[in-house]
Design brief:
Blueprint lengths: L5 E9 L6 H4 L19 H4 L22 E4 L11 H9 L3 E4 L4 H8 L4 E4 L2 H13 L4 E5 L4 E3 L5 E3 L6 H13 L3 H6 L2 H12 L1
Length: 202
Amino acid sequence: MEAFNKITSAVAALDRVNVDTDQIIPAQYLKLITKTGFGPYLFDSWRYGPDRAPKPDFELNRPGYENARILVSGRNFGSGSSREHAVWALVDYGFRVVIAPKFADIFHKNCFENGLVPVIVSDDVLEQIMIRAKEQPGWALTVDLEAERLDDGAGFSAPFVVHEDPETHAFRRYTLLNGLDEIGLTLRHEADIARFEAARSR
């Protein structure tokens, strides 16, 4: 998993609450057997019409959002089914950070296993980010996980966490900074595991 420290990018605003995983990646695209290839189908029914032409009124199709690596959305992002494909689709599309005041629990956990940084902010901070991203397409924000801070270099600055529980936040921040999923965490003990297996074999 790719380590994350800091990113500066345009912010794409998806001003909706309860964005569920079936909207993030519809069920008909879950047949792929790798973690890649889902990006073209992200928000498929919202992004495209029946002729596959982009819908001009969908938020992510707005000029200025094309290369955004940060997505901001409303409360309860990632609700619905537990499909990990939702995170895969966001990452494959190009997003590295999702900002929201609350994430659905299983989606939230899946973020940490795939290097997608779930930035939790207060409702007031969310509103400020949403307004700027909507009114100024292309507005850029720096997400600094080391400093646990958001900053646009033009007067806006705010703290954030990746988990509401302080102890879990510290652990999850560590795994993101070091690019460690559950397999990576286990492999830190590879030498001990090898010694145990050798002794067990004997």
